[in-house]
Design goal:
175 residues, alpha+beta, Peptide Deformylase, 5-stranded antiparallel sheet, two-stranded antiparallel ribbon, 29% helix
């Protein structure tokens, strides 16, 4: 089953998801989440982005994915790196965000097995972004105002260009 993305203004997107509330069938839900993530073209998707009040997300590359239930970041590096981040909740918007370059994490998979891992690079970034979703934190709130304004202007120009070329708003949900 493919889940629909909630609008950026939907209250569930801005609520902190509490531990303990989980789907009846975590294996099936994880598969549906991964399929939804792939369908929407993402590399991460939090349950609350699609209307479920679970402290859970999936992340992956289209072929392989991992489900993270009740995830925790246990250690963060002091070194912050800027990377332009996007989000399925904000189609077309990419904003420069500073985040730790390495983290240690703990989470349960869909079978209830506990994993402890050290992440860096893209998976480190995705894990932190999805954790923010579950804490009700909008990634745009982590951006400097200047970077967010520039990114929004880029989206506006792209939407206008597409509208001129195709006669309709191709990025209707973008900010």
């Amino acid at each position: 089953m493919i889940y629909n993305l909630l609008d950026k203004d939907h209250p569930m997107v801005h609520l902190r998801m509490e531990e303990g509330n989980q789907p009846e069938d975590k294996v099936e839900f994880s598969k549906d989440m991964a399929e939804s993530m792939k369908t929407w073209g993402g590399i991460g998707l939090s349950a609350n982005q699609v209307g479920f009040p679970y402290r859970m997300f999936v992340m992956g590359d289209g072929k392989n994915y991992m489900s993270c239930y009740n995830p925790k970041i246990t250690v963060e590096s002091d070194t912050l790196v800027p990377i332009d981040e996007g989000c399925l909740t904000y189609p077309g918007l990419f904003v420069r965000i500073l985040r730790p370059d390495r983290i240690s994490v703990e989470f349960e998979d869909e079978f209830g097995e506990v994993h402890k891992d050290d992440l860096e690079g893209l998976m480190c970034r995705v894990f932190q972004h999805e954790m923010d979703h579950m804490d009700g934190i909008d990634f745009t709130s982590r951006a400097k105002k200047l970077h967010l304004d520039m990114a929004k202007r880029k989206v506006k120009r792209a939407k206008l260009k597409l509208k001129r070329a195709h006669g309709k708003d191709m990025l209707a949900r973008a900010s």
